[in-house]
Amino acid sequence: MSVVLQGFGTGLSDAARLAARLGIPLHAIALHRFPDGEMRVTVGPAAGTVILYLPLDQPNDKLLALILAAEALRREGAARLVLVAPYLCYMRQDIAFHPGEAISQKAIGRLISGLVDRVVTVDAHLHRTAAIGAVFPGIEADNLSAMPAIATMLSGEGLDPATLVLGPDSESRPWVADLAGRLGLDHAVGEKIRHGDRAVEIVFGDPSGIKGRPVLLVDDIVSSGGTLVTAAKALLAAGASAVDVVITHALFPAGMIATFTAAGVRSIRSTHAVPHPTNAIPLDAILASALTRECQGLK
Ligand code: R5P
C-alpha cells in the first residue's frame, strides 16, 4: 500500500525532514481563509496510508483544518489516516476542576478518534490519565517520550557531573528521573501550587542540595512561563550556580525569552514538537521509529 506524508504551516520543515527519513513523499496541504473567516482546505493526492503531520499548538484553526483534511482524504481513497501531532492540544483540562467545566481532554480525544486510525504524539500531558489509549477510544495511540532525544543532545555537550536535574512539580518526576538516569546525574522535583493561569508558587525543599550546583530544569510544557520564572528565581535564591532549561513543548511567545533571561535563566531549549525559535532538539529519530511500520513493504 502506498504511503505519503502531508502537513501544513510552520510544521512543514519538520514534516519534510521526517518524510525524507521515512523515504516517502511529502505534500503540502493548502489553506485558504474566506472573508467571513471560514476556511478551505486542499489536500495533496491521497494514498492508501496518509500520515498527517500537525503540531497542535494554537490549535483551534488546526483542529478545524484536520476535520476538513480528513474528509477530503477519506473521500479520495485514503484507507488509513495517521495523525502525527508532536504536541497534543487540550490535554491539560482532564477533569472538571469546577462544576460546569468541559473536560477538553475527553471531547478532543473523541473528536480526533472519529477522524483518524492512529495518533502518534510526544510527552502528552496525561497527569491524571493512566494511558494515552484512554484519550482515544477505539483507535491506536502512541505517546512517545522526548527524553531519549533530549539525552542524546545533552550527552554530547560534556555536562558538569555536579548538575542537578530538576522538575518543577511532582508530575514531572517520571521524565526528570528518566532523563537524569540516562545522563547519570542526580535529580529532584519541587512542589508547585497553582493559584491561577499565570500565578504559581514552587518550593524546592532542602536548599543545601542546590547550593553551588548547576541546575538543568526540565518540563513538558512552558506556556505562560509562570512556572519557569518562579522556578528559576527560587533556584537562584537557593544558590544554584546556573539554571539551564530543556522542555518538550514551547508554547510561549518568542518575546518571552527575554523575561526568562531577566529571571536568571542561562539557556532555554525545546524539542521540535512545536515550531519555535528555541527548537534545538529534533524528534526525527523517535517519530521515524514509531512510523516505520506504516511504511513496511514499500521498498
Ligand atoms: C504542568 O502540569 C506542566 O507540567 C507545566 O509545568 C505547565 O503547563 C507550565 O505552564 P506555565 O508555563 O503556564 O506555568
Short structural summary:
This protein is α/β, with parallel strands linked by helices and 299 residues long.
Account of the protein in words:
The mean pLDDT is 96. With 299 residues, the chain is of the alpha/beta class. The strands form 4 sheets. Strands 2-1-5-6-7-8 form a 6-stranded parallel beta sheet, with helices on both faces. 28% of the residues lie in helices and 27% in strands. It is globular. Strand 13, helix 6 and strand 14 form a beta-alpha-beta unit. The site of ribose-5-phosphate has 15 residues, from strand 13 and helix 6.
List keywords for this structure.
binds ribose-5-phosphate, single chain, 28% helix, 6-stranded parallel sheet, 299 residues, alpha/beta
What order do the helices and strands come in, and which of them pair?
Elements: E1 3-7, H1 12-22, E2 26-28, E3 30-33, E4 39-42, E5 49-53, H2 59-75, E6 80-85, H3 104-113, E7 118-122, E8 140-144, H4 147-155, E9 164-167, H5 173-183, E10 186-189, E11 191-194, E12 200-203, E13 214-222, H6 226-237, E14 242-250, H7 257-262, E15 265-271, E16 279-281, H8 284-291
This protein binds ribose-5-phosphate (R5P).
Ribose-5-phosphate is lined by residues 127, 168, 171-172, 200, 219-228.
